[in-house]
Amino acid sequence: MPLPLLTADRDAPVVSVYEDPARWRRPYRPGPLRVGGTALVLLLAAYVLCSAVIIAFAGAFLLAGVCAVIAVTLIALAVRLVRTGIWLSPAGLRQIRLLSTRTLPWAEAGAVRVVEQPVRWLGLPRRVPGRGLVVEPFPVLVTDHGADFLERPLAFAEAVASLEERVAELGGQA
Fold first, then answer.
1. Are 96 and 138 in contact (CB under 8 A)?
2. Is the pLDDT of residue 123 over 70?
3. What is the 3-state secondary structure (H, E, C) of the chain?
4. Looking at per-residue confidence, does 126 or 61 come out higher?
5. Phi-psi bin for 118: left (phi > 0), alpha (psi -120 to 50), beta?
6. Cα–Cα distance for residue pair 51/40, rounded to 1 Å
7. Positive or negative, the Cα torsion across 21, 84, 103, 93?
8. Chain-centre distance of CA 61, in angstroms?
9. 150 — phi, psi (to 5°)?
10. Are 56 and 64 in contact (CB under 8 A)?
11. How far, in Å, are 30, 86, 91, 147, 166 from residue 172 at the CA level?
12. Count of alpha carbons within 13 Å of 51, Cβ hemisphere only?
């Protein structure tokens, strides 16, 4: 019995009837550190949620509610953590950080360039020599020492090329 997934043409573009070109899309995949960190936060949230259930069965409903609120906060933090990065749509470029979001319409987007400068290591205050991607009004958008590209220089180069291509394509539509 042939499996259609294994015999399909892998080079053919997959077109879905559910694709919406107006959706916000990330021009690169999240890195293993970002996904692993999110998984650890979700694991912690699962333990806190289990403790809330155990505490509720013990009869301390107020403390169980506090644990449930902590678990929901950790889940929201995990979702926000995995969504951080650069997102593109025909409306513009969006930079999502852990606690803030900035959107730049294509009409205001300037030149795209890669700069060699000290960059934050995993978003922490420590700075190391590295490369960062800059779109003119924004400061550094992504770096090669971020959670998506740490120790993955080829992935950073591919993401920069993809982002430059999308900015040139979508920026010309404005």
1. no
2. yes
3. CCCHHHHCCCCCCCCCCCCCCCCCECCCCCCHHHHHHHHHHHHHHHHHHHHHHHHHHHCCHHHHHHHHHHHHHHHHHHHHHHHCEEEEECCEEEEECCCCEEEEEHHHCCCEEEEEEEEECCCCCCEEEEEEEEECCCCEEEECCCCCCCCCHHHHHHHHHHHHHHHHHHHCCC
4. 61
5. beta
6. 17
7. negative
8. 36
9. -60, 125
10. yes
11. 27, 19, 12, 30, 10
12. 14
Show the tokens assigned to 140. 């550094």
Do 162 and 133 form a contact (C-beta atoms < 8 A)? Answer: no
The confidence band for 155, taking pLDDT boundaries of 50, 70 and 90, is confident
Q: What is the pLDDT of residue 165?
A: 83
Match 């936060």 to its residue by tokens. 41
Residue that is written with structure tokens 């995995």 in the block: 82
